[in-house]
Amino acid sequence: MKIYALFKPYLNLPRNVYILFFADIINSAGSFVYPFLAMFLTLKLGFSEYYSGFILTIVIAAEGGGVPVYVDENQNIRPAEAVIDKDLASSLLAARIKADEFYILTDVSFVYINYNKPNQEIKEFLNYEDTKKLLDEGQFSEGSMAPKIRACLQFIEQGGRKSVITEAFKLEDKSYGTKITMEYED
């Protein structure tokens, strides 16, 4: 009886909400990667259990999830078409916890301009102004690097000292990664 009372408010929701709910459950199956990430951080990278737990907390907090909904004018819960950009969510979280540095791990070691063209160029260091200009020029594709660049700029705008975009397996090697700061460092 008590269980029925808990679920009663949700019995008459639109069909789309149920579809989104079950899709989210299936999507959440990817969360099984977290134990393996913890093992990688502790066993492979040598992080302490405390530090690995802290990293996992940040990763999980910025992951998003849930079914996007809104309350309409009749106080009914309705599904909403929405996408939460994980790069921007991570940037916001990093700024809110007053992190000095913000890292985005991806499948390339650096940010490039003229990507996959004969005049491709690695950008190891960028300041805020030059990064914004390159973004506005369309140097970064929307389905790939542009959201990461926006997240880095957002972090710097909100007081972060440095954003870094690099390949996950190059994280320990400081010679890799594009470093974005408000001003060029000396």
Report on the architecture of this protein.
Helix 3 runs antiparallel to helix 4 and helix 5 (86-96) runs parallel beside helix 7. This protein has 2 domains: 1-84, no CATH class; 85-186, 3-Layer(aba) Sandwich (Carbamate kinase). The longest helix has 14 residues, at 15-28. The chain starts with a helix and ends in a 5-residue tail after the last strand. It contains 7 helices and 8 strands; from the N terminus they run H-H-H-H-E-E-H-E-E-E-E-H-H-E-E. It has helices at 2-7, 15-28, 33-44, 49-61, 86-96, 128-136, 146-157; strands at 69-71, 77-79, 101-106, 111-113, 121-123, 125-127, 162-167, 178-181. 14% of the residues are buried. The chain has 186 residues and is of the alpha/beta class. The protein has a 4-stranded mixed beta sheet. Strands 1-2 form a two-stranded antiparallel sheet.
Order of helices and strands: HHHHEEHEEEEHHEE
Tally of alpha and pi helices: 7
Number of strands: 8
Which of globular, elongated, flat, extended, rod-shaped describes the shape? globular
> Domains counted in the coordinates: how many?
2
Regions with little confidence, pLDDT below 50 for 5+ residues: none
Helices and strands in order, then pairings?
Layout: H1 2-7, H2 15-28, H3 33-44, H4 49-61, E1 69-71, E2 77-79, H5 86-96, E3 101-106, E4 111-113, E5 121-123, E6 125-127, H6 128-136, H7 146-157, E7 162-167, E8 178-181
Parallel strand pairs: 3-7, 6-8
Antiparallel strand pairs: 1-2, 4-5, 7-8
Key traits:
single chain; 186 residues; alpha/beta; Carbamate kinase; 2 domains; 4-stranded mixed β-sheet; two-stranded antiparallel ribbon; 8 strands
